[in-house]
Amino acid sequence: MIRLGYACISVKTKNNPNKKTTVAQLNKLEPQARLKKLRQILQTNFFNLMDLLAYNVENHIFLYRIPSEFVPLATHTVAENWDWAKEFAWDFQKAGEFIRRKGIRMTAHPGHFSILNSEKPAIVQSAITDFSYHARVFDLLGLDDNSVLVTHIGGGIDDKAAALDRFATHFEQLPDSVKRRLVVENDDTSFTMVEALELCERIGIPMVLDIHHHHCLNNGENWVDYLPRIIQTWGDRTPKMHMSSPKSEKDFRSHADNINPDEFVNFISSLTQYNVDIILECKNKDDALLTLRREMKKRGVEAEAFASKS
């Protein structure tokens, strides 16, 4: 069976855990006022996270991608004297208890500027810092290894072999807290499904299949033929995939507002023997998910398993 989820922002509710500030705004403040502002933002994000998770449970949505900016500027030097983990330990504990009790799977997608296979040591270190922050959030919430951090392979399209080697080498530099959560997704411009899969098999981490990206970038492979290998990379964990529909034939790479129901049925028809979590990457976020459910109900297609816990 399949569980559907969405990324970061609900368009059906007002409260979202992505409130933030800028370095420029903080630099206008005195140190104590700066810390006060950061604390206020994180407290608001915790309030909004709990509201949003309650909304998700009410609507039988048990898969959710938390915004990367949940802890404002956590990896920036402007917040280096702020021990947010200690100050908000109680909030992390209570949020984690709710998440675990309700059986919600939380995931994250660190920023596109976190490029692990870069040739520049400073960029690699920045990626490691960013990954470590995301892993720390999940560790503080007490979440298991199904709470993964999704990343792309990165740059180096002119010399793919060297780029893949760099990723594998730099992966070994990651702290264990990141290694056990990091997963790799195929992208739409540089590294195909097969290249991502072979890298994941090489370094022993799971692969996230993005079916839209595969349709954008491939060498004629039928993704279904590779499905058993992709599933196998997840071991005992529940495989996670991404789906979106193209905005148009002309703008094929961009995400549409909603999921095309015919494309969804075609996709899940090859997943019937697996338990898979699918993040829908649509402009309409949770509304797209709920709309897709209504479309499936009209067609008499049962795809989801509502795994609510008391």
TrEMBL record:
Does Nuclease count among this protein's keywords?
yes
Identify the Gene3D superfamilies for this entry.
Answer: Divalent-metal-dependent TIM barrel enzymes
- What's the domain of life for this entry? Bacteria
Quote the Pfam families the UniProt record gives.
Answer: UvdE
Q: Give UniProt keywords alphabetically.
A: DNA damage, DNA excision, DNA repair, Endonuclease, Hydrolase, Nuclease
**GO function terms (MF aspect):** endonuclease activity
Q: PANTHER family this protein is in? A: UV-DAMAGE ENDONUCLEASE (PTHR31290:SF5)
List the NCBIfam families hit by this protein, alphabetically. uvde
Q: What is this protein called?
A: UV damage repair endonuclease UvdE
The protein's organism comes out as: Brevibacillus choshinensis
